[in-house]
Amino acid sequence: MSDLILYSLPHSPYAARVRMQLNLKGIAAAIEAPPEGLGSASFKALTPTGKVPVLKAGDQHLPESIAIMEFLEERYPEPALLQGSDLERGWCRSATRFVDLGLAPALFPLFSQLRAKPRDEALIERSLVEMKKQLSILSQFIERSPAPLLDAKAPAFFDCVLTPVMFYITTIAPLFGDKTILEGQEPLATWWADIQEHAQVSKLLDEMRAGLAAMMGG
Amino acid sequence: MSDLILYSLPHSPYAARVRMQLNLKGIAAAIEAPPEGLGSASFKALTPTGKVPVLKAGDQHLPESIAIMEFLEERYPEPALLQGSDLERGWCRSATRFVDLGLAPALFPLFSQLRAKPRDEALIERSLVEMKKQLSILSQFIERSPAPLLDAKAPAFFDCVLTPVMFYITTIAPLFGDKTILEGQEPLATWWADIQEHAQVSKLLDEMRAGLAAMMGG
Most buried residue, B55, B150, B158, B173, by most Cβ within 10 Å? Predict the structure, then answer.
């Protein structure tokens, strides 16, 4: 048993990517909600941003999902999920950064509209167009990478990063009437269909679905 | 002579952090503007996002500043700028991520107001308050890190990341009448005063200042 605690919430895509990595690497870690809640003073004492995930390793705490994932690759090198040549790892990091600086932010306006009454239909339409633009750029990262970035059969680092974000994209776009958000985005769409069949991923997505339902119902 | 070209623009804080790293590591690389310009089809053929920096290494191109910096640390390990224990490197990566997901985005509304006529004074005031909040969180990263994140005398990875962003924060806030943006943010403010005296940094900041002036005057 490792000496790790991951402070996590089921619906957080940033926490879910670390849980996926822990599962794929077979690292035993306790998964816990933030002690006394996300907004509590005791949790803010553990991390400057007050956000999940935070990894407790021994008596130290490390915030930020990608920093945690890089740390886990260094401390638990086998099985390696971030591998290949330096340039291949570079493209994986580059695409990862695009997910968090380009793709995921395109979701934020749609999140804000989920409970809005009345909805801002013009904002929703603009946001869905923007999301498709960002998905096209993502498809270019996938196409241009010197090594495959995605592998639904043997998921690695970038599969962990993208899966929870793709869960939100494909869950939320249909709520605004867009059922074709991945249309024309091959091989991304095929990867997404396939990876949902992966046993560990399927379980992770069930956790996220239940977490999202609990959050929306709360 | 290495086989590297960095596609860069003088005013870009994301390109400037890579130039600073190249200088500190003593890596010889050609620094070039995007061939045929930032928006050109030929540059977009090199990178999915169309943004600088992009590193050409041999016949391959790698986009995204932090992916490039990690690549350079791997390919040219000496002198190491990202070092220490796995947890210490983890905190450096965590703070780096905060700069790009929390601190730098707080600048965007102020950029948008630089040439606005009339200016949206309420937006400017909110943005300056938000900037101070993000600087306080940054100060917490600096305080809580298990190893020093900043070193004005011997700059390393995080100094490279933060310096060009701090240039913009301390250049733009006074343009909106705020000359105390770093007040109360110690040891950040002292570091910023000191690192501007570093010979290589001073030269970099001159390049950024000239680049910004050219862009604003254009």
Answer: B55
User: Is residue B54 helix, strand or coil?
Assistant: strand
Q: Check whether residue B24 and residue B53 sit in a common domain.
A: yes
Partners of B30 in the β-ladder: B5
- Between residues 141 and 170 of chain B, which touch chain A (CB distance below 8 Å)? 141, 144, 146
Measured CA to CA, the distance from residue A71 to residue B215 in angstroms comes to: 39
Nearest CA in chain B to A73: B86
User: Distance from CA of residue A184 to its chain's centroid?
Assistant: 22
Separation CA B174–CA B119 (nearest Å)? 15
DSSP, res A102: I
| A157 lies in the same domain as A101 | yes
Same domain, A67 and A96: no
Q: Which residues pair with A7 in a beta bridge?
A: A32, A54
The residue assigned the tokens 């305080």 is B143
Residue B81 counted as domain residue: no
Tens-digit pLDDT profile for residues B154-168: 999 999 999 999 999
Q: ipTM score of the complex?
A: 0.97
d(CA A98, CA A105): 10
